[in-house]
Amino acid sequence: MKYAKRMSEIKASEIRELLKLTEQPEIISFAGGLPAPELFPVNEIKEVCSIVLEEDGRKALQYTTTEGFKPLREWIARRMNDRLETAFDCDNILITHGSQQALDLSGKVFLDEGDVVLCESPTYLAAINAFRAYGCSFLEIPTDREGMVISELEQTIQSCPNAKLIYVIPDFQNPTGRTWNLERRKQLAEISARYGIAVLEDNPYGELRFEGEVLPSIKSFDEEGNILCTGTFSKIFCPGYRIGWIAGDKEVIRKYVLVKQGTDLQCNTIAQMEIAKYLELYDIDGHIEKIRQIYKNRRDLAVQTMKETFPDSVTFTNPQGGLFLWVELPDGIDAREVLKICLEKNVAFVPGGSFFPNGGRENTFRINFSNMTEDRIVDGLTRIGNVLKSFQ
Amino acid sequence: MKYAKRMSEIKASEIRELLKLTEQPEIISFAGGLPAPELFPVNEIKEVCSIVLEEDGRKALQYTTTEGFKPLREWIARRMNDRLETAFDCDNILITHGSQQALDLSGKVFLDEGDVVLCESPTYLAAINAFRAYGCSFLEIPTDREGMVISELEQTIQSCPNAKLIYVIPDFQNPTGRTWNLERRKQLAEISARYGIAVLEDNPYGELRFEGEVLPSIKSFDEEGNILCTGTFSKIFCPGYRIGWIAGDKEVIRKYVLVKQGTDLQCNTIAQMEIAKYLELYDIDGHIEKIRQIYKNRRDLAVQTMKETFPDSVTFTNPQGGLFLWVELPDGIDAREVLKICLEKNVAFVPGGSFFPNGGRENTFRINFSNMTEDRIVDGLTRIGNVLKSFQ
């Protein structure tokens, strides 16, 4: 029996494997990207679940269209237009099995073997795995505090005829937590139009802004229809439902719909109806505000603790939102070695090397600050700080 | 902007497009593969949904492992062992987004561009689409009343060095409704072992047997670990949840788990917990028995009506279970032409041509008998019979 060639490239996600280790309750884990479960609106969901089953149980449990539940797609289009200056209606939206599936479908729609994906360096680990399954390679574009360095992007495109897709996370990037400024957003849309290259603007965290102004999406500057955006209910509602979306021009979304048909027919009907009912009956803005406040406190506390306990030679980002911050150690210190000692002290994070598709930069790691309570944040980061001191 | 090459091959599923047409309530549709919604245990699901959220709401709404909810995987392993003579435990099972995703993941695990899938002729339409996305072609193996003609399969393998995967639906096949006999099952397992070719045994309908004896799975004769099986809750519980599975030897399932990680991380957590809770608290066997009785009555009525109203030159199968039967018209009559007239008379079915990956056999069509009430079955099939008479 022979596997496909891609199977020699596909590796276990370091995060998912670490998550198994960190399931023991004594571990203080900054490894996952898990939302705080104490914020899930459990009682409200119980309520909407009953209502959906009472009002339209047979429909909720039956097959539905590949595109997804229309009232939910309508809500998403309105929300994106209001926040991100897009101009969508429901036919611009396809419901996906979390925004992770939007990445996988993008690989299927755009990537042939030998194609090149241009991405931020570093970039989201599971996007690397999603795209790699379609036989692509990656060119990493340098990033600074303002986002991708667009001049470097343009040079790379000019020297790379197989460049097929530009993948970016402009808001509270995973893993760095950084946000692109307005100028870079406009410039990327221009580059995409000039060179006719598709852009995937992945935006799972955009709603979780703690301070500063919401910026328009890259898509809002798209004049050629080359730009696609993702979104998800995982971070503003709950991830267990696995409901996200891909948004773009109608002609492109129709391609995604065809691809999703063969992939898994459609998303969970009742999950879509429950979320739509929640959005109808409850105050999602109030709920998101609660999440923002708590994550902001956790970020503040994390940054504060790191300032106090990490050696001065260690630098880290201070993100304006999202779930993650990014740590750089002095050259020559391997974050995997640091992790080994930290695990002995029952504290975990994700070493940064895996976020670079072409390897390297082992002196980095990612901290998730959304999932642990405040006392554990202080305790855990202090432990990491002590371990780091031993590496000086 | 350039799409992947595969996009020129991927077509809209004729069924999904037809389903949109047939959403008007006046249409009597034999087109879908939809279960009867009046059989969904809506009240019981309302109950288990409340219990799951009360007992463990935060867990139900959070991320979980890629493999899936363990108690559900344990139930599936026991069920398969009891019914299909397999020897599984929970680590032989990966929960998938319906059994359709098990097909897609199989394409990802096994198929490179240029590989060949060997399948029954005709075969399940959406499997063709799922596999084709990975750049394979198809060789159709003739089938008779007892299943795939194994001597033809072996000859094809010998002349086709790129044969990579054998795809079969041995129980109440889609679209023909036919079931493989015991001998053919054993022979296929032998062929798979002899030539080292993976087999995907797709089994979404096996639990819906109306008469005759349950036969062991092809997997139960597997000595080399080359055989994978699918299953789903869509036909015995409800499809809206999108919960199915792939089962196989542990080493192979670990490959599927890696691939699913990059594809969509995991299936809906709460859906898995709700189904597991239903299986714990309610009598699924009693529920399936109810479905069987009703579908059996519908099949009886369909076959009876077709005997009475279809011209003698038209032949059709009389399946022992499942959801479908298969109609063959005299050579030269195009089922798509018949459908046009039938749609004018508000009755629909799926023309058979699309079930042949390499085209042809336009004188066939598929009838679904599970979704319409008894009076509509008689009324609708009589209308089709009248249209068919006009083609004589």
Explained architecture:
- With 392 residues, chain A is of the alpha/beta class.
- Chain A folds into two domains: 5-40 and 286-390, Alpha-Beta Complex (Aspartate Aminotransferase, domain 1); 43-281, Type I PLP-dependent aspartate aminotransferase-like (Major domain) (Aspartate Aminotransferase, domain 2, 3-Layer(aba) Sandwich).
- The first copy, chain A, is built from twelve helices and 14 strands.
- In chain A, strand 3, helix 5 (125-132) and strand 4 form a beta-alpha-beta unit.
- The longest helix of chain A has 26 residues, at 284-309.
- The first copy, chain A, is globular.
- Chain A starts with 13 loop residues before the first helix and ends with a helix.
- In chain A, 56% of the residues are buried.
- At the A-B interface, helix 1, helix 2, helix 4, helix 5 and helix 8 of A face helix 1, helix 2, helix 4, helix 5 and helix 8 of B.
User: How far is the N terminus from the C terminus of chain A?
Assistant: 50 Å
Largest β-sheet summary of chain A:
8 strands, mixed
- The H/E string of chain A reads HEHHEHEHEEHEHEEEHHHEEHEEEH
- Which fold does the CATH topology of the largest domain in chain A refer to? Aspartate Aminotransferase, domain 2
Name the shape of chain A in a single word: globular
What is the level 1 CATH name of the largest domain in chain A?
A: Alpha Beta
